[in-house]
Design brief:
By secondary structure, the chain is α/β, with parallel strands linked by helices. The chain contains 12 helices and 19 strands. The strands form 4 sheets. An 8-stranded mixed β-sheet has the order 11-12-13-15-16-17-19-18, with helices on one face. Pfam families: DUF604.
C-alpha cells in the first residue's frame, strides 16, 4: 500500500482541523458544558429538517376530558342484582371507559351483559399466589389488586384511573373538571377521608376512602402496578384495601391530595341535612347508598339516585351547591341546595349558621364517642324560628329570558312542619307555601370560591315563591 507525500498529508490534516474547528464553533456554546448525550438535541436545534421539526414541536396538551379517564369498579356477583342500578345511573355507554371487576363470572341471569353497565372482568384468582395462606383478608386483597388489573387492561391515552365500589355514584363531568386542574404527568393520589372521626382514627386521617372513590394519575398507577404485589408481601395482615393502598403509597413517598367533593357517607339514617348544606366544592361522588335512607322521600334508593342525576345532567356544576338569601319584608331566610332541596326559615339567620348541616343522620359506628364528625353540625330543633320548612326537588324545565338560557327547578313541600309560627314581631308564617321555583342561569364556573347569590320574589298570600339566582355583588357579603 502506498503512502501520501508529506505535503499532501499536511494539507489533509489542515483541512480536517478547520472542519473540526467549524463543527465546534457552530455546535457548541462555550458558556455550556455539553455531554455526548446532548449532541443529538443540539444537532436538531442547529439544523432542523421538516421531519425533526414535526417531532419536536411543543404544542400544548389538550385539556383533560372524559376520554382520558378509566374507571376501575369493584363489585360482587352476590350483590350486583340490586347494586347495578347505581352504576347505571352515571355510566355512559360508548363514552365512559372502564371495567367492573367481579369476584366470579356473571350468571345467566345477567347475560347477555347490558351495555348500560360497565363491561365486566373477573378478578384474577389470587388463591394461586404464594402468600395466599398469609393474607388476613383475601377479599380485600382482591379489591386493592383491581388497581393493577385495571392498569393491565392497557387502555391508551389514559391520564387518570378512578377507582370505586359498585355502590358509588359519580358526577363524571364534575370529576373531569376537577382532575383537569392537576398535572396528570406527576404523581397524584386524589380523594377524601371519611365523614366520621372514628373511621379516620381507626385507619388514617390521610387516607382516601375507596368507597367515595379516588383518582390515581397515570404515572402513579403505573408505579403502583409494578410495586403492589411486593407491598402485599410486606403487609399481608392488613384487612382493609383502602389502608393497604395508603400504606403502599406512603412507603413510595406519595401523600393524599384532598378533595371535598368525594363522599364516603360513613353515616346512617337520613342524610338530607348533609346534602342540603354541601361543602362549597363540586359534587363528585356518593357512596354507601344502601346504608342510608332514600335521599328523596317516598322513593326507592335507586329512584332517588336517578332523580338526583336528572338535575346533575341539566347542570352538573351547580348540583348540590348551597345558595343562601334573605327576604327582608317577611324576615325569611332561604337555603337552596340546587337540584336537591330548599329550606325556608322564619327568621333572618346568618350564612355562618345555615352552612352547618342539620344533624338529621347518625354516626357510622354505634360505639363512637363525640366528636362524631369531621365538620360542625346543627342539632334539629323545635324552635319555630330555627326549624326549616323543607322542600325537595320535584321537576325542572328549561326556560329563557332577556339574559339567555336558564333552568327552572321546582321544589315541593315534604310535609307540614308541625310547629307554630315564629313569634317575634314582623316575622311571617311560611306554612302556606307549598312550592318554590328556582331560576338559575348558565352553568356555574367550577372555580375556587365561585358561588351564586339570589333574590326572593314573593307576594303576600301566594302559595308559591320564586328564588332567582344572579351574580354576587359587593353588598352580598352580609347576612
Amino acid at each position: 500500500m502506498g503512502t501520501l507525500p508529506l505535503g499532501a498529508l499536511w494539507k489533509s490534516l489542515a483541512i480536517s482541523g478547520l472542519f473540526l474547528f467549524f463543527f465546534y464553533i457552530v455546535l457548541f456554546d462555550t458558556h455550556h458544558h455539553y455531554q455526548p448525550s446532548d449532541l443529538l438535541e443540539t444537532f436538531k436545534q442547529k439544523w432542523p429538517s421538516s421531519t425533526l421539526l414535526a417531532n419536536t414541536s411543543s404544542t400544548s396538551p389538550t385539556p383533560t376530558n372524559i376520554s382520558h379517564l378509566v374507571f376501575g369498579i369493584v363489585g360482587s356477583m352476590n350483590t350486583w342484582k340490586h347494586k347495578r342500578f347505581y352504576s347505571q345511573a352515571w355510566w355512559r355507554p360508548n363514552i365512559t371507559r372502564g371495567y367492573l371487576f367481579l369476584d366470579r363470572a356473571p350468571t345467566n341471569e345477567f347475560l347477555p351483559w347490558s351495555s348500560s353497565s360497565p363491561p365486566f372482568r373477573v378478578n384474577e384468582n389470587i388463591t394461586t399466589k404464594r402468600l395466599y395462606p398469609k393474607f388476613l383478608s383475601p377479599t380485600q386483597v382482591r379489591i386493592v389488586r383491581t388497581i393493577l388489573e385495571t392498569f393491565r387492561e392497557g387502555d391508551e391515552d389514559v391520564r387518570w384511573y378512578v377507582m370505586a365500589d359498585d355502590d358509588t355514584v359519580f358526577v363524571v363531568d364534575n370529576l373531569v373538571e376537577v382532575l383537569k386542574k392537576y398535572d396528570h404527568t406527576k404523581y397524584h393520589y386524589i380523594g377524601t377521608s371519611s365523614e366520621c372521626v372514628k373511621s379516620n382514627f381507626d385507619f388514617s386521617f390521610e387516607m382516601a376512602f375507596g368507597g367515595a372513590g379516588y383518582a390515581l394519575s397515570y404515572p402513579l398507577a403505573a408505579l403502583v402496578a409494578s410495586k403492589l404485589d411486593g407491598c402485599l408481601e410486606r403487609y399481608p395482615n392488613l384487612w382493609v384495601s383502602d389502608f393497604t393502598l395508603y400504606s403502599c403509597l406512603a412507603d413510595l413517598g406519595v401523600a393524599l391530595t384532598r378533595n371535598n367533593g368525594f363522599h364516603q357517607i360513613d353515616l346512617h339514617g337520613d342524610i338530607s341535612g348533609l346534602l342540603s348544606a354541601h361543602p362549597q366544592s363540586p359534587f363528585l361522588s356518593l357512596h354507601h347508598i344502601d346504608t342510608v335512607d332514600p335521599i328523596f322521600p317516598k322513593m326507592t334508593r335507586a329512584d332517588s339516585i336517578n332523580h338526583l342525576m336528572k338535575a346533575a345532567k341539566a347542570d352538573h356544576s351547580r348540583v348540590l351547591q348551597q345558595t343562601i338569601c334573605h327576604h327582608r319584608p317577611t324576615n325569611w331566610s332561604f337555603s337552596v341546595s340546587w337540584g336537591y332541596s330548599a329550606h325556608i326559615y322564619e327568621a333572618i339567620l346568618p350564612r355562618s349558621i345555615l352552612r352547618r348541616p342539620l344533624e338529621t343522620f347518625r354516626a357510622w359506628q354505634r360505639s363512637a364517642r363525640p366528636p362524631f364528625y369531621m365538620f360542625n353540625t346543627r342539632w334539629p330543633t323545635k324552635n319555630p324560628c330555627e326549624a326549616p320548612h323543607v322542600f325537595f326537588f320535584d321537576s325542572m324545565q328549561e326556560d329563557a329570558d332577556d339574559e339567555g338560557k336558564r333552568v327552572v327547578t321546582n321544589y315541593v313541600r315534604a310535609s307540614s312542619r308541625g310547629l307554630p309560627a315564629c313569634s317575634p314581631s314582623g316575622n311571617h308564617s311560611a306554612d302556606h307555601i307549598d312550592r318554590i321555583r328556582v331560576f338559575s342561569p348558565a352553568k356555574l364556573p367550577l372555580e375556587a370560591g365561585a358561588r351564586d347569590c339570589c333574590d326572593v320574589i314573593y307576594a303576600g298570600g301566594m302559595n308559591t315563591t320564586e328564588v332567582r339566582y344572579r351574580a354576587c355583588m359587593k353588598d352580598d357579603v352580609t347576612a
